[in-house]
Amino acid sequence: MLRPALPAALLLFLAVMLRSGAMDGLMNFLDFGAGVLALVSLSVTVLWGLAATDRMVLKSGHRLLAQAVHRGTGVAGLGFLGLHIWVKVTEGHTDAAAAAVPFTDGARPGLIGLGTLAAYVFIAVAVTGAVRGAFTGITASRWWRGLHMSAYAAWGLALVHGLRAGRPAAGYALVGYAICLVAVAVRLALRMRDSRRNTGELP
Questions:
Q1: What pTM was computed for the model?
Q2: Where exactly are the transmembrane stretches of this chain (predicted)?
């Protein structure tokens, strides 16, 4: 009984939103907010991904929890990223071709291109992360690890895109991005140092 009513209720809800002008307000919010939510989610994903590799403080159960949060925020980040791209194309800030092909935007090819390039890398990392079990063997595992590490570079590109391609960021946003950048850099440096020690490359 309820199943046929749900689509009708949804259509009625959308009609009321369109008539009241609420849809315009939602699009105005998403025009700015979707990109911010994507960047925040992906920043949290990077930080939790680094946390999930810790073996000095976290136990195995904690690392599994960190990996789950890492995957969850990654999925959320990709969802917000897709919404961000859709809103920008719908609102006419760029076109579908420029969103799909890096560095082809007529007005800001460099900044928009960085965002497109970062999006492709994030998607590739997410897909290969989902099929991690297919990368068996030493060589395949190294390829997977190298591709997964490219997410750090993509996050840096997304950070530049987010700060420069849209409206000027507020002071608190700049401080937040700077904290994320320092936290990722410090944690990544510690991880690389520990990795070299474990392989015997450092005394």
A1: 0.77
A2: 32-52, 64-87, 111-131, 143-163, 169-190
Residue 21 identity (one-letter amino acid)? G
For residue 37, CA distances in Å to 41, 84, 169 come to 6, 9, 14
Q: What is the DSSP string of the chain?
A: -HHHHHHHHHHHHHHHHHHHTHHHHHHHHHHHHHHHHHHHHHHHHHHHHHHTT--SS--HHHHHHHHHHHHHHHHHHHHHHHHHHHHHHHTTSS-HHHHHSTT--SS-HHHHHHHHHHHHHHHHHHHHHHTGGG--SHHHHHHHHHHHHHHHHHHHHHHHHHHHSSSPPPHHHHHHHHHHHHHHHHHHHHHHHHHHHHTT---
